[in-house]
Structures are given as structure tokens and as C-alpha cells.
């Protein structure tokens, strides 16, 4: 890993633009211009014409639950959400899914693919207590100089139906969880008012943003979304709330969906998607037209919920493009913006981007254009965090446990 405070990236193309050089000082972009004379103290990196992207942003995943590195485990859960939750609770205990070890494995996998920021939902419930939070918090500390990591305190098994969970959520936030999570206010706790009162009460008490899983479809999901909108307005939390999945926005009644999207735009509520191929999903085009920020993530990666995923957000941008029938170069680029700039906005990352003064969280990729990089997702040539090389050729510099 490089430790110098001055780096000159030679012959690179920021977001696919013309060849130029990027000078990095003290972890930030200090100059962008071709033919720069390298300072005597600078480390030189020959980009050889590679495209430079800002660090990719994994804005929705579950680091505490991955089975990555534990050998192949056949999928065992039934089709319903409750089946998945109950099966996962059983198997995590049987298989000794250690949250620190597993979250470190997935985070390093993502780093090798160019993600320099991750928002992870971490289960808080009465069976696991704070073990998931504590394990991921340790990973956050271990990788503090390589990945910006946010922890969402997430009541996967319900917030009210399992007495004691609310107290555990409170404790996780006191100990350093960054975001208040919630889950399907109607269908999980069967008390949407109580659930959302608790979620927004925690957010207000701890001055934290909110990220709510909303799997509920069609009108049920629309009803929950309207309740969330009401509370955002009442608590003055515009710009601080994310709704993840939001499958109801993919409902067949497009006029109803677009009316909800207009309300989301007014309340500045963000949407996080994983471009799920088997459920209706929010329309990237409708959200973009309304000005709603759409970020993206991998969701669970090779866990008890399913065998898929690899933490590659460049590939996820391709999935987002495919799911939304994005074909023109500028539209494919928008899919990548969901996996970069939009994720950075949702996570409120300071000094993010490719301009002078931005933090030098950068990814080098060999491709002809940005759209070509999305559809081919080649191995990341180089990943820099605050100007230091943290991954090469698709692999993090730090070895996984």
C-alpha cells in the first residue's frame, strides 16, 4: 500500500474524457491537467489511458450475513419472507456465521471491485443481540482507512413483535450505529403506526438518518409509503430518509406509482434498489424524471437468502441498466451514476467526485467508454482510497481471513 502524500496519475481519462494527469496531495485531488511536471516527492502511476471513476458506492448490503469464503451452502429457505428469516436464524447458529470474519471477507471483496464506501444493514434482534453490530463495527474499524462504512441498525425479525428489539436498537445507536433501519411496517409488525413511530422516534432521539426496507407490494406498499411520507414531513426529515427496494413503485398502475414518486421528490426521500430481476422494481426513468435520487446495492451476497452476488457495483450498474432497458450510452452512464454519485449523496459522503478538491477515492478501469466499462465490467486495474493504492487487478491489498 502506498503511503506517500503526493501521487501523480499520468495519462488517465476522468469519467471517459480526454487524456490528462491527476495530481493528488494529502489525499485530495490537487490538479487536473495534461502534461504535468511531477513534483520531486511524487509517486508516479502510469494510467496507460485507463478511465478514472470515483470510488464505487455499495449503498445497500448485509455484511453480517454473507457466507462468502465458507464453502458452497445449498439454499434451504421457503418462498415467503418469514420462511427466509426463520431459516436464516437457524442456519446462522448451526454454521457459526461470525459477523466480524464474514463482514471483513465481503468488504475486502467489494474493495477489490472498487467500492470505497459501503452502507450495510446489520440485524438487531433478540436472538443475536448486538453480535452482528459489534462484528461489523470491528470491520469498520479495521478498514477505516480503506472504506467509508455506515451501519444501519436493522430489525430484520420485526421491531415490535419481538419484545426487547427496540431496546437493542437503542443500544446499537448509542454504541455507534449510523442509521436507523425499519422493515415492512404493515406486514412485519402488523402495526404500521407503532413501527414508524418507533423508527422516527429513534432517529429524532439520536439525530440519525433512516433507511427502511419496503418489500410490501402494490397498494399495501403504497399505504406504508404514504405513512413514511407523512412522518418525513412531520419530523422535518427531508433529505434524510431512504426507502430500500420500494417494490410498490413497480405496480401496474403507473399513474398511482408516478403520483407516489412525485411525493417522494417533494419530500426528498431517496430510493435504494438492487435491480431485483424477480420482483417489480421502481422505474429508474420515472425516478430520474421526477428528480428522486436512486442509489443501488448488492443486497445479500451468497447468504441464506440466496446463492447470488459478488459485490461488484460496476456489474450491478449493468444489472440496473438491463432491468430498466437502458441502451443509449448516456442512459447506461446514468446507471453507473446510481452506483457512484447517487450512493455518495445518500451516504452524505463529503468531498466526493472527480473535481479539484475532491477526496482521491478513485477507480481505474480499462475500457473504451464509461458505457463500455459498465457492460463489460473488467477487473479493476487500480483502486485508490484518499490517494493510497488499496487494491490492484481486482483484489484488495489486505488479505481476507
Word description of this protein:
It is a single chain. This protein has 2 domains: 6-54 and 352-394, Urease, subunit C, domain 1, CATH 2.30.40.10; 56-346, Alpha-Beta Barrel (TIM Barrel). It has helices at 81-94, 99-112, 131-142, 165-175, 192-206, 218-235, 254-267, 284-290, 313-323, 329-338, 341-346, 370-376, and strands at residues 6-14, 20-25, 28-33, 43-46, 51-54, 56-61, 115-123, 148-154, 179-183, 210-213, 241-244, 270-273, 294-296, 362-365, 382-385, 388-392, 395-396. Strands 1, 2, 3, 4, 5, 14, 15, 16 and 17 form a 9-stranded mixed sheet that branches. The chain has an 8-stranded parallel sheet with strand order 6-7-8-9-10-11-12-13. Strand 1 and strand 2 form a beta hairpin. It is of the alpha/beta class.
Overview features:
9-stranded mixed β-sheet; 8-stranded parallel β-sheet; 12 helices; 401 residues; Urease, subunit C, domain 1; TIM Barrel; globular; single chain
> For this structure, what is the CATH class of the largest domain?
Alpha Beta
Provide the low-confidence segments as ranges: none
CATH topology description of the largest domain: TIM Barrel
CATH superfamily of the largest domain: Metal-dependent hydrolases
Amino acid at each position: 500500500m502506498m503511503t506517500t502524500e503526493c501521487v501523480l496519475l499520468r495519462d488517465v481519462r476522468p469519467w471517459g474524457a480526454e487524456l490528462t494527469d491527476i495530481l493528488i496531495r494529502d489525499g485530495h485531488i490537487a490538479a487536473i491537467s495534461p502534461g504535468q511536471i511531477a513534483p520531486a516527492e511524487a509517486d508516479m502511476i502510469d494510467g496507460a489511458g485507463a478511465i478514472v471513476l470515483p470510488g464505487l458506492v455499495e449503498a445497500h448490503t448485509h455484511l453480517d450475513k454473507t457466507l462468502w469464503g465458507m464453502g458452497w451452502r445449498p439454499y434451504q429457505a421457503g418462498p415467503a419472507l418469514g420462511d427466509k428469516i426463520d431459516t436464516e436464524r437457524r442456519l446462522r447458529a448451526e454454521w457459526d456465521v461470525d459477523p466480524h470474519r464474514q463482514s471483513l471477507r465481503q468488504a475486502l471483496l467489494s474493495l477489490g471491485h472498487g467500492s470505497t464506501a459501503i452502507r450495510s444493514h446489520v440485524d438487531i434482534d433478540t436472538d443475536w443481540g448486538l453480535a452482528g453490530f459489534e462484528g461489523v463495527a470491528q470491520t469498520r474499524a479495521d478498514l477505516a482507512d480503506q472504506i467509508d462504512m455506515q451501519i444501519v441498525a436493522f430489525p430484520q425479525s420485526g421491531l415490535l413483535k419481538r419484545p426487547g428489539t427496540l431496546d437493542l436498537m437503542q443500544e446499537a445507536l448509542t454504541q455507534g450505529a449510523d442509521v436507523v433501519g425499519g422493515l415492512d411496517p404493515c406486514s412485519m409488525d402488523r402495526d404500521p403506526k407503532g413501527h414508524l413511530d418507533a423508527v422516527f422516534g429513534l432517529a429524532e432521539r439520536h439525530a440519525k438518518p433512516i433507511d427502511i426496507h419496503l418489500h410490501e407490494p402494490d397498494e399495501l406498499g403504497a399505504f406504508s409509503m404514504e405513512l413514511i411520507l407523512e412522518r418525513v414531513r412531520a419530523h422535518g426529515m427531508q433529505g434524510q430518509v431512504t426507502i430500500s427496494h420500494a417494490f410498490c413503485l413497480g405496480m401496474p398502475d403507473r399513474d398511482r406509482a408516478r403520483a407516489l414518486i412525485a411525493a417522494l421528490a417533494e419530500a426528498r426521500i431517496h430510493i435504494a434498489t438492487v435491480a431485483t430481476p424477480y420482483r417489480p422494481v421502481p422505474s429508474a426513468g420515472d425516478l430520474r424524471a421526477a428528480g428522486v435520487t436512486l442509489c443501488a446495492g448488492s443486497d445479500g451476497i451468497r447468504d441464506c437468502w440466496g446463492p447470488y452476488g459478488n459485490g461488484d457495483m460496476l456489474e450491478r450498474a449493468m444489472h440496473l441498466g438491463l432491468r430498466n432497458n437502458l441502451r443509449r450510452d448516456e442512459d447506461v452512464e446514468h446507471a453507473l451514476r446510481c452506483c457512484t454519485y447517487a450512493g455518495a449523496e445518500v451516504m452524505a459522503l463529503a468531498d466526493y467526485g472527480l473535481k479539484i478538491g475532491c477526496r482521491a477515492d478513485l477507480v481505474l478501469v480499462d475500457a473504451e467508454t464509461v458505457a463500455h466499462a459498465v457492460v463489460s465490467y473488467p477487473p479493476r486495474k487500480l483502486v485508490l482510497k484518499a490517494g493510497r493504492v488499496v487494491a490492484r487487478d481486482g483484489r484488495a491489498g489486505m488479505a481476507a481471513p
